[in-house]
Structures are given as C-alpha cells and as structure tokens.
C-alpha cells in the first residue's frame, strides 16, 4: 500500500537512500529499527537488496525515505552502483567491534565520492554500540547481545567474550570513537555511533541526513510538487511504522520531528 | 572423500554409492564439485541422487556454473564457502524441502487449489505489455509455496526444477522473514541458463482486510504523518505495533508473493511495472462479482484442483482480496473426500507437470489398533515413512527396463507393510499414488477418487 501512494499526489519529498557496508555489521537491523522500531536477534543475511520506505518529518516538510538496504557479501558488490546511482543519501555502516569493517566502510565512501551523485549526503554509522556499553541503557548484558547478526561473523560470537565480560565491556571495541570521528570529519561525512538493538542513535542518522539534504534541489528536479504542510497531526499517528519520537526520551531536544 | 572418489576415477569408473547395513552413502559428481549424502531412510538411490542434484542446482543459483568453472580452473583448492556467503540459508531450506516436499519427489509443481475464473483474472492482471515485456522472462504469483499462476513467453516452457529453485529461495528465511516491501534478488535459474544471472523482483503482499486497507490508503495520502504535535501519539503507536505483530503471525501463511524474473538489470522499469501490476490486482472494480460467479466447474489451468464453493467476500473486493480469501480455504483433507480406507494420496497430471495432494492429517480415520500403534511414533515419522514408500513406488514404476527388453517398465505397483499399503499407478495422462489403511481389502478405491477429481 505504501507503494500505491507513491504517485504524483504524494506531497512528500522523496529521498532515495542506500545502505552500504560489510556483511553482518547490522545494516538491515538499523533499517528495521528506523522503519518498524523493532529489533530481531540473529537476523538472516540480506540477499541482493531489500526495499523499504519510511516517512520523516522535518520542520514543515515530509520526507519519504526510499531505502535500498543492500547485501554486504562481496558477491553482491557489483550490483551496488545500481542502488547508489540515483541516491541522494547513503548510510555507510561498520561494526565498532570489528576494525576491518571500518576499512570496508572507507572503501565504500571512496567509491561513493568517486561515482555517486556529487551532492550525495553520506553518513557513517558505527553500529553495535550496545556491545561496548555497560548495562545502564540497554536491558540485557553485553554477553547475551553478542549474536546480533549472523553467527558466522567471528567478531561477535559469545565464545570470544570471557564470561566475566560485565567488568570490561569496552574491551570488545576495536574502533575508537575518536578515530572514526576524525575520519568522518576529514572525509566530510555525518558521523554517528548507533545501536540497532537499543535504538540509540538510529533515528538521529536519518534526521541529520534530512537536515543536510538539499531539499529545494530535489523539488526542483521533480518539477515542483511542493510539499505543503497540511493539517498537522491529523490522524497521521495511525500510519503504520511511522517513527514515534516520544519513545526516544533521551534524544536531544533540537532534533527534527522525524 | 576426494581420495575415495579419485580411486575410482583412476580406473575410469564412478563411485555411486556405498551400502553399509541400513545406511547408504550416495555420491554425485558435478565437476568441480562432489556431493555426498548419508541416509538410512531406505529411499531408492535415484531419489537421493535427485536430492543431491537439486542441491547442486541451488548452488548454481548462487554461483553460476561458468563462474564455478573459472574459479576452480584458476585455484583448485578454492574454498567455495567464500562465494556462498549468506547462501547457507538457501541450502538448509532446500534440504528440508527435499525431505518432505511431495511435489519435488514427483518432479512436478504444486498449484494452489483455486477457482479457475479467479486464477485467470489474476493472470490477466499480470501479463506484461509494452516495452517491459521483452525484458521480463517469467512472472509468478505464489502463496505458501504453491503456485497461483505462472506467466511465461509463448513457446518457452519453464523447467519445474527452476521453479523449485525459486520457491526455495523465496522460502528461505532471508526472504520470507524480511520486513521489506520489495526485494531485488539476483539469481541463476540453471535449467534455463546455467551461466547467466537473472534478477527476481519480489513483492510481498500480506493479507490486509478491506477496512484497514482503505483507511491506510487514506492516511498514506495525508501530507503529515505521525508527529510530535499529535497528542494521541502514545495510543497510536500502540495500535500500530499490535497490527504489526498480527501481521507477522500470518505473514507466511497469508502472504501472496509476486515474483518478476527479468534478464535485464534495469530495475526501475521492472519495479514500475510490478507496482502497476500490484495496483491492478488491488483495484476495486465496480462490478467484480459478475465475472467470478459461474466458473468453478471449468478447469483450464489446473484440471484437478477446482475449489469447492466457499463463502465469498463482499462483492466489491479486489482480485487480491479474493485471492487472500481463497487462500484460507484452499487446502483440503483426505477425509473431506469421504473415501473409506484412503489415508492419503498424490495425483500428478503428467502433461501439466502438476501435483495435488491433501494436507497431512493427524489421527485420520484409523482403527483403534492403528491409532495405538502410531502413538508410539511421531507424526513426522509417519509422514517420512509414507513419503519414502511413495518414492519407492515412484522409482519402481519409472524404472527403465534393466535388461532393455521392455522400455515401459511397471504400470502398477502395490506395496504392503504392517502399517499401511501404498499403490502407485502410471498411465499416459497421470500418475496416482494412494496410501490405504492396512485393513482395507485389496481392491483399492480408485473409482470414487477418479470421480472426485474428474468432477
């Protein structure tokens, strides 16, 4: 049904967004959190690419994200240009407990900057933040969260975590926040550390992207079907899967209404 | 294993199987890969071999045979797992289907039992037109792993094995559990072309009842979705999670999946076409009830699966809604046929390569002693045992004359054990397999069954 509404009558601004990153870093989990506010442990690997949509409200505009969540396996790499070719935004995800995944993220960023739309907004997201946090904000212990993604991903298997992990959860971290932040600044990317499991930082990615997207530009390109703010909040809450910011109580106040 | 197989290759021979008591180890060589299966179910060797063959095809659907050849020519010790990343879920799904799926055992397809008028209507909505049609190879509408309709170019048939590869891919958790509205899945259909990838655009259409459908559409067109300034946010988010969990429960059972296989890689065109097709299926015609009323006895697409009259949804329903409603009534049990002594059957229309069979039932029409006896074994064991017997009979009536004097082989075989008896019968137009109560007299109830399937 969401598909059916994508016609010309839709007054929201469509933003094509692509997710890229190494296998098993949690791309699909980040999207699932954003689109349905859910989390699934042991999520199966994505095959090819999956298409999802979610609306996001920024000040007086409604953005409709059309998200291509791509598979991270190397054999799907050659398909990626098809998804980022016309994308206005990209989220490149890595796993903060796996250093090599940041290297892969960097190579994706390079590819995007070289071959994608020159105005593309790129966000770098270090996922699995819950694995390195003490249990203050998340419900489970880090040990039980370890298999967030595929079991074949050696970084997050319970076996690697000493059973006394509650003492030193930070030891799982392989990518220091400062290092990734420095790289992101240098490369001109938005930067976030996220946890698809707890939801931390996920909505913020899409909010910040929404702020940075040259909306006027998109509108001009799609021959001016200007999004006009309608009667605010009219029955809109029943829209299935729409993001409800009230649930993120710890969010900074100045974030956009997404 | 390599050594074992090489010993025979050196002699210009092929290692096919090793028997060790009740256990048989079967080998299949598909260069550059070797497959092996250890089984003690007692199924015929040809069956195990076909299972391994299916496994091979499933691997080819991920890595084309041209790719395989190239890689192993370059590096003989290549670890194939590197290329199969993320694909183990296909292989495990394939394995579990192979063991219990009767359509695969019979090398045929299982079609959803459906009113043929409705089936035609759905098919008409899906026939591609315009410039997209030369790009599209097949269009398949599937529910619960059964085919609703399949659209293909004229003079171009679809190999059942390719359809099973596709069904397995769809059934694997990577696709069936995905929350995505659509997916773009590159795969190879090896029987069509084993060195070329095609793309499957997959759209899941979960069951939504009419009321929520229209209200959702309304909301969708509103310029402002949920937002902070909505005072009812809390209750709203609550309702939406509830519908979501509900949807999840039904997702595998009542989802209808549209698959569009295209050779080209221009997914925007394919996507636009599929969106149109979904809209056509969901379109609410003003006079829809008239076209569907009198068709339940004409059987064009699947002759053997005309559905009985079922409660119709309100007259103003879309084709998609009709399909979803039919889905709830499409399976049948053998006791509905009311044929004494018949416990299960499989009917294959050979020309159409289609099968139909009733759902497996628990404790169906058994005598007390039988029921007692089967309490000891699980339901799965019973199913497994009967499937193995079907396979044995299937193997026997399909066997080519060993000595070459008769090409025809057996026409009819009757196997009797202390638990039940199984009969297989092959003719030009059909194959029929029956499972009968062990107390049933020798003459099988063919006549009433033939009458049922004819009418």
TrEMBL record, chain A:
Q: Which residues does the annotated region (Disordered) include?
A: 133-179, 227-258
Keyword Disulfide bond listed? The answer is no
State where composition is biased (Low complexity). Answer: 134-145, 154-169
The record lists the membrane-crossing segments as none
Spell out the CDD domains in the cross-references. Answer: Rab5_related
Alphabetized Pfam families for the sequence: Ras
Q: Where is the composition biased (Basic and acidic residues)?
A: 248-258
UniProt KW Nucleotide-binding keyword:
yes
Q: Which UniProt keywords apply?
A: Nucleotide-binding
Protein name per Swiss-Prot or TrEMBL: GTP-binding protein ypt5
An annotated Gene Ontology molecular function: GTP binding
Tell me the superkingdom of the source: Eukaryota
TrEMBL record, chain B:
What membrane topology was assigned to this protein in its record?
A: Peripheral membrane protein
Q: Which residues form the FUZ/MON1/HPS1 third Longin domain?
A: 341-442
Pfam families of this UniProt entry?
A: Fuz_longin_1 (PF19036), Fuz_longin_2 (PF19037), Fuz_longin_3 (PF19038)
Return the annotated region ranges for Disordered. Answer: 218-249, 285-313, 363-382
Give a GO biological-process term: protein targeting to vacuole
Cross-referenced InterPro entries: FUZ/MON1/HPS1_longin_1, FUZ/MON1/HPS1_longin_2, FUZ/MON1/HPS1_longin_3, Mon1
**Annotated Acidic residues bias:** 367-380
Residue ranges of every copy of the FUZ/MON1/HPS1 second Longin domain listed in the record = 135-202
State where the protein is found: Endosome, Multivesicular body membrane; Prevacuolar compartment membrane; Vacuole membrane
* Composition bias, Low complexity: 285-305
Q: Name one GO cellular component term.
A: Mon1-Ccz1 complex
Q: Keywords for this entry? A: Autophagy, Endosome, Membrane, Protein transport, Transport, Vacuole
Family designation: Belongs to the MON1/SAND family.
Q: What does this protein do?
A: Required for multiple vacuole delivery pathways including the cytoplasm to vacuole transport (Cvt), autophagy, pexophagy and endocytosis.
Protein name (record):
Vacuolar fusion protein MON1
Tell me which species this is from.
Rhodocollybia butyracea
């Amino acid at each position: 049904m969401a598909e059916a509404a994508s016609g010309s009558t839709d007054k929201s601004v469509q933003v094509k967004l692509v997710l890229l990153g190494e296998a098993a870093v949690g791309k699909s989990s980040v999207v699932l959190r954003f689109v349905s506010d859910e989390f699934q442990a042991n999520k199966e690997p994505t095959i090819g690419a999956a298409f999802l949509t979610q609306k996001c409200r920024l000040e007086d505009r409604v953005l409709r994200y059309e998200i291509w969540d791509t598979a991270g396996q190397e054999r799907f790499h050659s398909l990626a240009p098809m998804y980022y070719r016309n994308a206005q935004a990209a989220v490149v995800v890595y796993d903060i407990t796996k250093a090599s995944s940041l290297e892969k993220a960097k190579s994706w960023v390079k590819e995007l900057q070289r071959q994608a739309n020159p105005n593309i907004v790129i966000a770098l997201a270090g996922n699995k933040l819950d694995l390195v946090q003490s249990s203050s904000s998340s419900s489970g212990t880090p040990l039980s969260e370890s298999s967030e993604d595929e079991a074949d991903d050696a970084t997050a298997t319970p076996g690697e975590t000493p059973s006394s992990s509650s003492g030193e959860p930070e030891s799982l971290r392989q990518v220091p926040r400062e290092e990734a932040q420095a790289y992101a600044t240098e490369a001109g990317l938005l930067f976030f550390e996220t946890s698809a499991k707890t939801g931390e930082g996920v909505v913020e990615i899409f909010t910040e992207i929404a702020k940075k997207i040259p909306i006027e530009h998109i509108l001009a390109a799609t021959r001016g079907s200007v999004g006009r703010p309608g009667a605010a909040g009219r029955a809109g809450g029943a829209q299935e899967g729409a993001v409800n910011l009230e649930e993120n109580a710890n969010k900074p106040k100045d974030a956009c209404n997404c | 294993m390599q050594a074992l197989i090489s010993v025979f290759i050196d002699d210009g021979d092929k290692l096919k199987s090793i028997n060790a008591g009740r256990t048989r180890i079967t080998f299949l060589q598909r260069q550059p890969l070797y497959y092996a299966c250890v089984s003690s179910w007692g199924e015929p060797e040809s069956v195990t071999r076909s299972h391994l063959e299916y496994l091979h095809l499933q691997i080819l659907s991920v890595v084309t045979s041209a790719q395989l050849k190239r890689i192993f020519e370059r590096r003989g010790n290549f670890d194939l797992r590197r290329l199969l990343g993320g694909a183990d879920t296909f292989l495990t799904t394939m394995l579990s289907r192979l063991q219990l799926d009767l359509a695969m055992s019979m090398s045929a397809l299982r079609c959803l039992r459906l009113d043929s008028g409705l089936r035609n209507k759905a098919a008409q909505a899906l026939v591609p037109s315009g410039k997209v049609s030369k790009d599209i190879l097949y269009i398949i509408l599937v529910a619960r792993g059964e085919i609703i309709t399949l659209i293909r170019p004229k003079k171009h048939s679809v190999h059942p094995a390719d359809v099973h590869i596709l069904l397995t891919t769809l059934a694997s958790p990577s696709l069936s559990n995905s929350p995505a509205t659509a997916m773009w899945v590159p795969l190879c259909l090896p029987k069509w072309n084993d060195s070329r990838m095609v793309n499957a655009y997959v759209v899941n259409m979960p069951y939504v009842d009419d009321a929520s459908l229209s209200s959702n559409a309304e909301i969708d067109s509103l310029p402002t979705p949920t937002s902070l300034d909505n005072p009812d946010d809390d209750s709203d988010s609550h309702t939406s999670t509830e519908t979501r969990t509900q949807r999840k429960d039904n997702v595998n059972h009542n989802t209808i999946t549209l698959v569009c296989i295209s050779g080209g890689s221009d997914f925007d065109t394919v996507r636009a076409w599929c969106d149109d097709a979904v809209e056509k299926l969901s379109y609410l015609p003003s006079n829809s009830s008239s076209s569907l009323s009198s068709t339940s006895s004409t059987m064009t697409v699947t002759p053997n699966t005309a559905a009985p009259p079922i409660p119709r949804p309100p007259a103003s329903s879309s084709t998609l809604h009709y399909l979803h409603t039919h889905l709830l009534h499409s399976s049948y049990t053998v006791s509905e046929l009311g044929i004494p002594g018949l416990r299960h059957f499989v009917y294959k229309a050979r020309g159409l390569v289609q099968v139909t069979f009733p759902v497996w039932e628990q404790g169906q029409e058994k005598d007390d002693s039988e029921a007692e006896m089967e309490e000891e074994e699980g339901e799965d064991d019973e199913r497994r045992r009967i499937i193995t017997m079907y396979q044995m009979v299937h193997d026997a009536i399909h066997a080519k004359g060993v000595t070459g004097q008769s090409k025809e082989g057996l026409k009819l075989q009757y196997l009797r054990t202390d638990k039940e008896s199984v009969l297989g019968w092959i003719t030009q137009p059909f194959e029929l397999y029956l499972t009968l109560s062990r107390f049933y007299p020798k003459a099988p109830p063919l006549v009433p069954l033939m009458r049922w399937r004819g009418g």
